[in-house]
Write a structure and sequence with these properties.
By secondary structure, the protein is α/β, with parallel strands linked by helices. It has 15 helices and 20 strands. The two termini are about 30 Å apart.
């Protein structure tokens, strides 16, 4: 844990006592602050009390004695209406911050030259974050990974000047977290892409894009920006006009200056002349154009931090990918080749599934669960890649109607039956590398508590099949 000493001797209010909120309270207390915490959830309050945190309804506070309100990122800050704790803090002129801001304030106070890579974007944040952390670790650097990726930032190891770079931090940062981190100044700031999302929180896509852009604009050394959508292209131009160094990344075509994908290669254009800097061929965890963008941004960040291309290529080859996101689980030999089993349980909507379907031919597709608005009709362009679909959960009948006459399908009902049926058909297909793909296009809540449990169930069932060899 990183103790927060920037509020020593002061009183700090904390609202929202999930993982990150409770850890914020503990880190502040360890650093010498007095903490008063609250949550609307009784179980969260009880957990905080059991951990020794002072709890009190923040409506009863004397806000003139409060140095800051630390707000959990999921609590409404502006839209649709500010949370009551936000209204109280605002009325009293108390600054409202989050755990990322606590991290940034402590990093500045520590004086340690610890590089920080911060990644945001609508899609691809987690993969890019995990890949950069892996590349740094592969090169022998102490790399701490956290933030929105699942490990609260204050749970990471404290700042230390060790190794060739110092302890490095690689953080996935959501728009909610950027909103609460005015001191965020990463060494390298990465903005991958912007598309419509979280408008219930930010009101308009323009507001959402502006918040995402803040992370890249605040970068101290370089802003790495994927420029394949209008919002990021405009962001790159604005940040460059402000005098900041911008490195552009594209997977749609060559760049005169910047990193871009050309087949399986990552190229670097400099003044119109290009040369290859990385090779993605044969790296199963980085299949698809979306992963080419993730990899190119990761390469750009690691080059900016001083890694050489040989170190980076070695790390790319050994990257295992994220659990539950196009995760290669195992192979089963057949007379014609082998069946590849892929866990893409994190693909809970059609947009995410499209990336998986675009990355593989000859798919035996397991889909379904608790349906989301829009269904799978928007995936029609990828239907020719699907040899057969195996449908589970509440969405099975609706998905079957969408696929009727376009893709052979079977109502499997449950995951275990779908895996058995898909494996049977994949083995009998005579294809060199048929893919049994779990990419549900649905939430998991009809049959599983979350996508992680669903993905683990898939992996466990696959690895229990006779003749399946795990992919490490």
């Amino acid at each position: 844990m990183i103790p927060i000493t920037t509020f020593v001797g002061q009183t700090v209010a904390v609202f929202g006592l999930g993982n990150s909120g409770l850890l914020s309270a503990k880190a502040l207390m360890q650093g010498g602050a007095e903490v008063i915490a609250f949550d609307d959830n009784e179980k969260s309050l009880a957990a905080a009390k059991a951990a020794g945190v002072t709890t009190q309804d923040l409506r009863e506070l004397d806000w003139t004695k409060i140095a800051a309100l630390v707000l959990a990122p999921g609590v409404p800050l502006t839209h649709p209406t500010p949370h009551w704790s936000v209204q109280l803090a605002t009325k009293a002129g108390v600054e409202i911050i989050g755990d990322i801001e606590l991290f940034c304030l402590q990093r500045a106070m520590s004086g340690a030259a610890c590089p920080l890579v911060a990644i945001t974007g609508t899609n691809g944040k987690s993969t890019t974050t995990a890949l950069i952390a892996h590349l740094l670790k592969s090169a022998g650097i102490d790399a701490q990974m956290g933030g929105n990726i699942g490990v609260p930032v204050l749970a990471l190891e404290p700042f230390a000047q060790i190794g060739r770079l110092g302890r490095a931090y690689v953080l996935e940062v959501s728009s909610y977290q950027i909103d609460l981190a005015p001191s965020l100044k990463p060494t390298v700031g990465i903005l991958l892409n912007v598309s419509e999302d979280h408008l219930d929180r930010h009101g308009t896509i323009e507001n959402y894009a502006a918040i995402k852009t803040l992370l890249a604009a605040s970068a101290e050394q370089v802003a790495v920006i994927g420029v394949d959508d209008r919002y990021t292209r405009e962001a790159a131009e604005r940040i460059e006009r402000a005098g900041k160094k911008v490195v552009r990344v594209s997977v749609l075509g060559p760049l005169r200056d910047g990193y871009y994908a050309e087949g399986s290669r990552i190229m670097l254009g400099v003044g119109g002349k290009a040369h290859p800097v990385a090779q993605l061929a044969g790296i199963g965890s980085l299949r698809g154009a979306h992963n080419a963008q993730n990899a190119a941004c990761a390469v750009a960040a690691c080059v900016a931090l001083g890694l050489d291309l040989a170190e980076i290529q070695k790390g790319l080859v050994s990257f295992p990918g994220l659990a539950h996101r196009m995760q290669q689980v195992g192979r089963k030999k057949t007379a014609a080749g082998s069946v590849l089993f892929v866990n893409d349980s994190k693909a809970t909507n059609a947009d995410s599934v499209a990336k998986a379907l675009a990355s593989f031919p000859d798919i035996f597709w397991i889909a379904g669960g608790k349906p989301k608005t829009g269904g799978i009709a928007g995936l029609a362009e990828f239907f020719p890649r699907i040899r057969k679909a195996y449908l589970i959960g509440e969405a099975a009948q609706d998905f079957a109607r969408t696929l009727d006459g376009q893709v052979p399908r079977e109502i499997s009902g449950v995951l275990s039956a779908a895996i058995d049926q898909a494996t049977r058909d994949a083995e009998a297909s005579g294809l060199k590398e048929p893919i049994v793909l779990l990419s549900p296009a649905c939430a998991s809540f009809d049959q599983y508590p979350n996508f992680e449990v669903r993905g683990k169930a898939f992996s466990d069932l696959v690895l229990a099949l006779p003749g399946v060899t795990p992919i490490a």
